[in-house]
Each structure stands twice: as structure tokens, then as C-alpha cells.
Specification:
Helix content is 32%, strand content 19%. It is of the alpha+beta class. It has a seven-stranded mixed sheet with strand order 1-5-4-3-2-6-7.
């Protein structure tokens, strides 16, 4: 018999040490947070006529059960997963000898050792291990998903083949989880606020410490350090560049030395406290004195975000938004960003709304309590520099509510964002 451990509802972790509270910790009801998210997963399963799912993606496991362990490692190793039926016990399959880490989580009914079958973990015994895993899934099927259909978010080809041979059909678990994660609860918004607060502490430090002679990597490290200091988790990318490396966009930070008067653009992509993502982009200039061309690029990016953000409110279709979205001038279009809008939560989430030529007219509608980011990259094809700006919003009752409050540059206050609208750029957070 394999070892497994059932969790007592009253189990609590031993704490013989002093801890420092994280931002927002006293305001968050974690029981409500966890119950809401697991309920969303089960409702999406039910909506799709499914009885159960298995989740490997650490972000999805975090969403469903709020349990974490070596998240980045487990993004590329199938060594930790969970089983969630609509009716039945929630089972966490934990990494070797780590069963005790989830003692404090009352939504998990049972913890079992993960059965791994990847080559790294098992070498020439991978096939034997896969047979054990299939046997385990068949046992679960006999009790908890007799339809023989199972949603799985991430899995490798040998396992899919083996499941099909055993009579179990695999369906896309990513769809289930992306839809579950779309609408945020009040507790999720508190978590997200804490993450944004931490990101903005880091961004402020970056702005203050930016100086000629430091490398892009040195500047970028300030955000990493701040995130870890405040209980954050990781950063998805390292998109920061300076000077001519800002055009075209998407270059990651390097050992390039920042020069006087150069543009520095970056995208935080920061998974902060409680696992929630703070995703804002800013563009600074070394010395903080923008030349005329840098101002022009910056103000175009502000206009882009202002225009698109005003289009969005509950009930607006993605198709309508795409048709009315700001038109990027032709000489800039070839360097356009990959999307105009994307959802945000524990990381980048559904929906992703692209430019019209890239398939931007997607089915769906903006809904109240979605959280999204509005993106802009402005850099002329063949130009010297580029500006990346991005703001994070809550879709409120009557429109977007700004969540990212780090201010934009002072000179934005001198301009209106739209010739037909007298609302100044300060609605995106003017530097005061």
C-alpha cells in the first residue's frame, strides 16, 4: 500500500518563530479567498459536463488550492499535481517528502506522494512509473469520474497516449481554469492591490536610482530585490532595455551600460505577494529630462492607453472594442506590441485581445470584476528608441478603475489625451 496522509480539518502548522506581516495581510480573509477560487473551478467543470480535473501547472494549483512548493521548478517538471472532482476528496500529489507543507490548508482532503514518470526523475524506469500513474488515475476514475473524461491542464505526450489506451479521454483543462480565473472576488482584489503596492515601491526605487554608468541588469535587480523583500515570488520575464535596445521591443535586460539621456523602458511582469501579478510598464529617461522625440513617443503611448481604456465597460464586446480601438500610425505598426489588452490575475490571463490584423476580434465581452491591463508600445520601425507603457485596471460598474497608481511624467499634465476630450493625462496617474 502506498503512503498517503489525510489532513485533519484542525491541522495547523507549527510556528516557533516570529514572522513579519506582509502588505494587506490583515485585510484578507484567506478562507473566503480559497473557497471562492475552488468553487469557481468546480462550477467551470460542471458547465463543461466534466466530473474532475488534474492540474499540474503550479499557477493553476495555486489558484485552486492555494498550495505552493517550488513553483518555477514545477513549471518544467511534472512532479507535483492535484486531483479535483466535483464530488469527492481533493487530493494533492506532493513532491518527494514534502507532504507536511500543506498542513494549514483545509480544502485539501488528502496528500499523497506524486507519481512521476518523466525521464529526468526516473531514467529507464520512466515507463514503469507511467504505468503506476495510469493505474492511479483509473482508480480515481472508477470512483469520481465515471464518464472517463478528464480535464488536464499540462501533460506530456506519453501520458496522453497511455490514458487514451486505458479508455480515458483527455480534454483541455487550460480552458476550464482560464475561465474560472476571469472574475475576481473582493479578496483577490486585495491580494492584487498588495502586489501592485510592492511593484510600485520597486519602480519608485528604480526611478530614483537610475543613473548613467549602471547596467540594465543592475537597474532590473532593484525590482527583484524589492519583490522578495516584501514576500513576492518571481518575475515572469526580464523585459528592460535602454537606448537603442528599446526599439524594437521585447529585448531582455543585459550588461549594457545605460548612457546619459537614454530612454529606459520596462515591463514588471511581477508575481508578488499571495501569488498575484503586478503588470505595469513604465518608460524613464536617465536624468529625467525627455528630449522632444522622447516626449512625442511617450505622449503617443499615453494617448493610446487613454483612448482604449475609455472604450471598456461591462457588456462591451471584444469585437466592438477592437473595431473602435486606437489606430496605431503606419510607421509604428510593424513594431506593435503583441496585444492591446490582456487579463491579469495570478499571471497573464484570458482574454488576450490582439490588433485586428493579428486576429483581434475575439468572441466574448468585458464583464464586471474582470481585471485587465491596457498595453502600448510606441517605436517607429527603424527608429532609435521606443516607449512601453501599461496600466492595470479593474472593470467596474461604469468603466475601468485604475489599479496601478505609479505616476506618469510631469509633462503629461500639459496635454489632453484626446482632441475631443478635455480629460487630462492625469487620469493615468500624473507625477505630483
Amino acid at each position: 500500500m502506498r503512503f498517503s496522509r489525510k489532513i485533519s480539518p484542525d491541522a495547523k502548522p507549527k510556528q516557533n518563530f516570529v514572522t513579519k506581516k506582509r502588505l494587506g495581510e490583515d485585510e484578507i480573509n484567506f478562507d473566503k479567498l480559497r473557497s471562492y477560487r475552488l468553487d469557481r473551478v468546480k462550477k467551470e467543470l460542471e458547465k463543461n459536463n466534466l466530473e474532475a480535473c488534474i492540474l499540474f501547472d503550479p499557477v493553476n494549483v495555486r489558484y485552486a488550492l492555494d498550495t505552493t512548493n517550488m513553483s518555477v521548478y514545477n513549471m518544467h517538471n511534472l512532479t507535483r499535481y492535484c486531483f479535483i472532482p466535483i464530488n469527492g476528496p481533493i487530493i494533492l500529489y506532493e513532491y518527494f517528502n514534502c507532504e507536511k507543507l500543506s498542513n494549514h490548508l483545509n480544502l485539501i482532503s488528502e496528500v499523497r506522494p506524486a507519481i512521476t514518470w518523466d525521464y529526468f526523475s526516473n531514467g529507464d524506469q520512466a515507463g514503469v512509473q507511467l504505468e503506476k500513474w495510469i493505474s492511479e488515475i483509473k482508480d480515481l476514475s472508477n470512483s469520481y469520474f465515471k464518464s472517463k473524461k478528464l480535464a488536464i491542464d499540462v501533460i506530456n505526450a506519453p501520458a496522453v497516449t497511455a490514458l487514451n489506451k486505458s479508455g480515458i479521454k483527455v480534454v483541455d483543462g487550460k480552458l476550464i481554469l482560464e475561465q474560472a480565473r476571469v472574475i475576481k472576488s473582493p479578496e483577490e482584489l486585495k491580494c492584487m492591490k498588495a502586489a501592485i503596492d510592492v511593484a510600485e515601491i520597486g519602480v519608485n526605487k528604480m526611478r530614483e536610482e537610475l543613473k548613467a554608468g549602471m547596467t540594465e541588469d543592475e537597474l532590473w535587480s532593484i525590482l527583484h530585490k524589492t519583490n522578495i523583500e516584501y514576500g513576492g515570488e518571481w518575475i515572469e520575464c526580464r523585459i528592460l532595455s535602454s537606448g537603442e535596445r528599446t526599439n524594437p521591443w521585447m529585448q531582455e535586460s543585459s550588461n549594457k551600460v545605460i548612457q546619459r539621456g537614454e530612454m529606459v523602458s520596462f515591463d514588471t511582469d511581477m508575481v508578488g505577494p499571495y501569488g498575484y501579478c503586478a503588470d505595469i510598464s513604465r518608460a524613464f529617461v536617465e536624468g529625467h529630462k525627455f528630449n522632444d522625440e522622447q516626449k512625442k513617443l511617450y505622449l503617443m503611448a499615453v494617448e493610446h492607453i487613454n483612448h482604449n481604456s475609455r472604450l471598456i465597460k461591462p457588456g462591451v464586446s471584444f469585437k466592438e472594442f477592437t473595431e473602435k480601438s486606437w489606430k496605431l500610425p503606419g510607421e509604428y505598426y510593424g513594431n506593435r506590441y503583441s496585444c492591446m489588452i490582456h487579463g491579469i490575475g495570478l499571471c497573464d490571463e484570458w482574454p488576450q485581445i490582439k490588433y485586428p490584423k493579428d486576429g483581434g476580434q475575439r468572441e466574448g465581452y468585458f464583464e464586471k470584476n474582470m481585471t485587465i491591463t491596457v498595453e502600448s508600445y510606441i517605436g517607429k520601425v527603424g527608429g532609435k528608441e521606443g516607449v512601453k507603457l501599461e496600466q492595470q485596471y479593474l472593470v467596474g460598474e461604469n468603466g475601468l478603475e485604475l489599479m496601478s497608481l505609479h505616476p506618469l511624467e510631469d509633462f503629461c499634465l500639459l496635454y489632453t489625451s484626446d482632441a475631443a476630450d478635455d480629460t487630462p493625462c492625469v487620469d493615468l496617474g500624473g507625477r505630483r
